[in-house]
Amino acid sequence: MKKTFVTLFSAALLLSACGSTVQPPAQSLSPSSSSAPSSDTAAGTAAPVKQEAAAAPSPAEQAVQKPAAEQTPAPVPSPAQAATEIKKEYKMNKNYDIVPIDASGNKKVVLLTFDDGPKEKELLDSLFDTLDKHKAKAIFFMNGYRIKSHPELLKLVDERGGILGNHSYDHIDLKKQTNEKVDQQLDDVNKLMKDIVGKTPQFFRPPFGSGSDYVKEKAKKEHMLYMTWSNGSLDWEMTNAKNDPKAVVKNVLDQLHAGSNILMHELPWTAQALDQLLAQLEEKGYSFVDPRAIEVDVQ
Ligand SMILES: [Zn+2]
Fold first, then answer.
1. Does the keyword Transit peptide apply (predicted)?
2. How far is the CA of 104 from the centre of ligand 1 (A)?
3. Number of domains the chain is built from
4. Which helix (H) or strand (E) element contains residue 196?
5. Chain segment 253-267, per-residue pLDDT in tens
6. Is there a domain that residue 27 lies in?
7. Does residue 71 sit within a domain?
């Protein structure tokens, strides 16, 4: 009985993680085969599914799935609201790396991201304490169902200066969903964020890095920059926290390159590793990109 539970729990932990279990290849490979998961990049060359882009979500279907969240009209994107005075000095390339817009800009930067929250106040406080210590900003790619359960944690992320990211409502493989379902998965998160903290996210990352042309179109339509990652910490594969903080640091440093888009999660060993990781990145001369300095409406 106990064993079954442990097995199921472990399986659930694995399933809840973002990435594939395959270590991303070195960045020197071609864009279509680099660190982003193959399930995502495989769709990169397919023709866009434009004829369905304007399809409205079915109210009936949504009502069945999310009655509470569907009582009001779809949120109106408000990119202006999330915009700040911070100058757009960076853009994302096809490898999901962050590069300076001006060729003379500082290339030696990394983007910090944390997926699958918001989960726990203690964990978030720890992450933000460390980020503050290093004067670093990060994107928090969050799931709607978690925000729905803990709206106060979304407020915490926002109040402590976390940059909001949409990671779908249910953390499902969007590549396998209908366009209507994709719309609902993205719209419902934006609506929740708008209702709770009064702003909508400018960044979108599909669960498991698994998207499609339609998912990319939808993110763009909602003024969100679509990204997977280019440096996976592999923290989602770790289940024994004892030595794992060191492994988180090592995994990131092993894949480190200019513009690294670093995927991490709201996990205890990642929180434990963060101070050491940021210190080592700084020692190597890297700066942390403020996500608000990244161009969003150019894809
Ligand atoms: Zn995820």
1. no
2. 34
3. 1
4. helix 179-197
5. 999 999 999 999 999
6. no
7. no
